[in-house]
From TrEMBL:
PROSITE patterns per the UniProt record, alphabetical: MRP
GO molecular function, one term: 4 iron, 4 sulfur cluster binding
SUPFAM superfamilies: Fe-S cluster assembly (FSCA) domain-like, P-loop containing nucleoside triphosphate hydrolases
UniProt key word Metal-binding: yes
Alphabetical list of Gene3D superfamilies matching this protein: Fe-S cluster assembly (FSCA), P-loop containing nucleotide triphosphate hydrolases
The organism of origin for this protein: Halorubrum aidingense JCM 13560
The protein's role, per its UniProt record: Binds and transfers iron-sulfur (Fe-S) clusters to target apoproteins. Can hydrolyze ATP.
Domain MIP18 family-like: 3-64
Family note: Belongs to the Mrp/NBP35 ATP-binding proteins family.
Keyword check for Metal-binding: yes
Assembly and binders: Homodimer.
Residues that coordinate or bind ATP: G100, K101, G102, G103, V104, G105, K106, S107
Protein name per UniProt: Iron-sulfur cluster carrier protein
Length: 346
């Protein structure tokens, strides 16, 4: 078997999202066949542990299952910038979790997406950039504070996720009024001076709305895309549209709409009550031609998260499964953004 034979077989592997085979899409970086019976293939895949990219890798292995060759796969998306020029050289994907309005469960969603990606096997960081209400440490019962190591900050870990929060910078019950330039400085510093190491995903919990912090992040970080969280209520949906406009203005990809508090299963009567209405998130996604990532019901377990602040996504059951669907869709859609970038940039 030579390189051309390998490519011919690879041309039989389809990308489940982009509607063509991986060779035509330019997703094969490199192929080597050696005398020892090994085929080394480098693919332009960018969303580690996403179900769709894992399926592509499986299909590639399957394409050589009838041969005696060993297949060694690697994945990398060629960077446009040198490592020295990149803001976060070790981070593959930055995913912002945003909402137009406060209290819709944005932080809850960010925590569960981060923990869920980590549970899939990915290396994950979570940056709680909610300057006005940094509640992630409390949510995951993070006792440990960051350490300093020379000029850098070492983030503590919870559930395998490296965590940095604006809350670490302020005392408890010590409301800080951040002005625009301060926000800019702090965010840049927190991103650049933290030892994130090599990460597959950095999830950013943005403050609600469309203010200074969001702008700073959009302008300074290479975002793979944003997740917009909304409840099915009319007012929340209206505000979500403002968020969409902000991302649109900055050419930021929106990975999709996640709906929170989508109904309540009553533990007493067993009935399902649609407290804030139904179908709003899905309709919003359809209207703006965006993916709908899934919906999570109102469930007291989401708030309590167990005694040790364990995110519900790590649990079993209906609500955990609802979060897992969102996690998988976020990863899959991040992959679409990355692979489409390679394919269209050729
Ligand atoms: N699906 C849910 N079921 C039950 N409680 C929930 C659910 N989602 C969120 N909550 C609770 O609602 C409250 C608000 O959620 P959260 O802090 O995630 O919202 P937020 O949008 O990040 O708010 P803000 O950014 O304004 O602080 C929290 O106490 C959280 O535990």
């Amino acid at each position: 078997m030579n390189e051309a034979d390998v490519r011919e077989r690879l041309a039989g592997v389809d990308d489940p999202d982009l509607g063509d085979d991986i060779v035509s899409l330019g997703l094969v970086n490199d192929v080597e066949v050696d005398d020892a019976g090994e085929i080394r293939i480098s693919l332009a895949l960018g969303a580690p542990f996403s179900p769709h990219e894992s399926a592509i890798a499986d299909d590639v292995r399957e394409a050589f299952a009838d041969t005696d060759f060993e297949v060694a796969l690697s994945a990398s998306i060629p960077d446009e910038l040198d490592a020295a020029e990149q803001v976060l050289p070790g981070v593959q994907n930055v995913i912002a979790v945003a909402s137009g309005k406060g209290g819709v469960g944005k932080s809850t969603m960010a925590v569960n997406i981060a923990a869920g990606l980590s549970a899939l096997g990915a290396r994950v960081g979570l940056f709680d950039a909610d300057v006005y209400g940094p509640n992630v440490p409390r949510m995951v019962a993070a006792e440990e504070r960051p350490r300093t190591d020379g000029d850098t900050i070492v983030p503590p870990e919870r559930f395998g996720v490296k965590l940095i929060s604006m809350d670490f910078l302020t005392g408890e019950d010590d409301p800080v009024i951040w002005r625009g330039p301060m926000v800019h400085k702090i965010i840049t510093q927190l991103v650049e001076d933290v030892q994130w190491g090599e990460l597959d995903y950095l999830v950013m919990d943005l403050p609600p709305g469309t203010g200074d912090t969001q702008l700073t992040i959009l302008q300074t970080l290479p975002l793979t895309g944003a997740v917009i969280v909304t409840t099915p209520q009319e007012v929340a949906l209206d505000d979500a549209v403002k968020g969409l406009r902000m991302f649109g203005k900055h050419d930021t990809n929106v990975l999709g709409i996640a709906e929170n508090m989508a109904g309540f299963r009553c533990p007493d009567c067993g009935g399902f009550h649609e407290i804030f209405g139904s179908g709003g998130g899905k309709a919003l996604a359809r209207e703006h031609d965006l993916p709908f990532l899934g919906g999570v019901p109102l469930d007291p377990a989401v708030r309590t998260g167990g005694d040790d602040g364990e995110p519900v996504v790590l649990d079993e059951g209906e609500t955990a499964d609802a979060f897992k669907v969102i996690v998988e869709n976020v990863a899959n859609n991040a992959g679409v953004v990355r692979r489409r970038g390679v394919s269209e940039g050729r």
